[in-house]
């Protein structure tokens, strides 16, 4: 715990190189802690006064994802997309989406809606957004609305008239509650 607190103090003091060294040491002591590995990856990716390295960031993000940190899949996808590997980015999102991770499902839809995966496919985007929405991910509801306001783009007229038909919300979460 002392090492974690020391690393956190270095980070908060914006001594990122020192914090990175401590977090890497901590990750060595707790290899199954995905959150620490993810933070190490972020420090490498951000290159904020560190010896930034996208390859190392990706390795740390993968370690975090394999340790159960679902958010690391989003970071892996970002690194791959921003380093010119959209197919690999989509694979990482698909893996997390298959586990039911709503932000990954949403980001798959976002990629289809805006052409990150090649061609724009608003029908696939809408399908992803609906899956994320069912899991209570409110950002998906906003994108569903945006697609339908643009005329549905390939959506049947009955779907456009009743966009929520067949979609049920779970968990009672709402956008106002940060869902």
Structure description:
The protein has ten helices and no strands. The protein is mostly helical. The chain has two domains: 1-99, Tetratricopeptide repeat domain (Serine Threonine Protein Phosphatase 5, Tetratricopeptide repeat, Alpha Horseshoe), CATH 1.25.40; 102-179. It is elongated, with a radius of gyration of 19 Å.
Brief account:
It contains ten helices and no strands. It has helices at residues 2-12, 16-29, 34-46, 54-66, 71-82, 86-98, 102-114, 122-134, 138-149, 157-161. Helix 3 runs parallel beside helix 5 and helix 5 packs antiparallel against helix 6 (86-98).
Number of strands: 0
Strand content: under 5%
Instruction: Output the CATH class name of the largest domain.
Output: Mainly Alpha
The CATH topology of the largest domain is Serine Threonine Protein Phosphatase 5, Tetratricopeptide repeat
**What count of helical segments does DSSP give?**
10
Rg value: 19 Å
Order of helices and strands: HHHHHHHHHH
Determine the fraction of residues in helical runs and give it as a percent range.
Answer: 55-70%
**How far apart, in Å, are the first and last alpha carbons?**
31 Å
> How many domains?
2
